[in-house]
Hints:
With about 300 residues, the chain is an alpha/beta fold.
Amino acid sequence: MNAPEAKRRSGFVAVVGRPNVGKSTLVNAVVGSKVAIVTPKPQTTRHNIRGVYTEERGQIVFVDTPGIHRPKSKLGEWMNESARRVLRDVDLVLFVIDASRGWTEGDARIAGELFPSAVPVFAVLNKIDALPNRALVLPLIERVQDAGEFREIVPVSALRGEGLDRLVDLVFAYLPEGPYFYPPDVLSDRPEAFHAAEIIREKILLLTEEEVPHAVDVQIESWEETDRLLSLSAVITVEREGQKAILIGRGGSKLKEIGTAARRELEERFGKKVFLKLWVRVRERWRDRPTFLREFGYRDT
């Protein structure tokens, strides 16, 4: 990272698209670290999360955004607005499309919001590894070319790392010259307590079904760390007593399963023993109540 500062290129890049198109997987793959949780469930990402990629050419600050969707709650409305706000303050937009599903009505709706735009927009065709035939990429590129004024159309597989080097090269070509925004060793702008809460929520999303996953919020209540031990407690909020019962499970079995999975990943992340305590509470309709949304960190509501 010894390039003269005047020749470095640095900037902010919004990563937008429908839910479940692989935005977080893409950011994690380029940054080389898990800065955003990933699950197969829609609306896994709730906050704008910055993932920082730094090398000798400069620094790319990716802003991973919630999937733009048809909201069913005030939380959903906040997530959509949060994603849209980012578009006003970046140097480049990566519009991620699930190539395995082709061009959808949802993609067209979001593209309609992106153009016209003074900010350059790339179309990133993700999940090309899921196509039954790679020959299907070309007609999709042609379809996307007709849908908007994309500066570049880049096929990638974030899961397998295909096409990411070319994507990074193209991103740097569009960024302005300037110094790093973050120190070279920073990978995310979020504190570790945020990432710990997200890891716990990820395990809930992966280990529960039906209405429970999206009715959940996780907040870190206490955090004590030494060289050898991290002790933390977290409160899990749901909307109904029935959801609480499902989350706890018979004899506490489900909560124990969630805690064990979260603890293992936290120990790997922090490189030390982790003591994790979880408890569950009910806050009725918290996703539609601005007071709770603000309390849980969903600002501007």
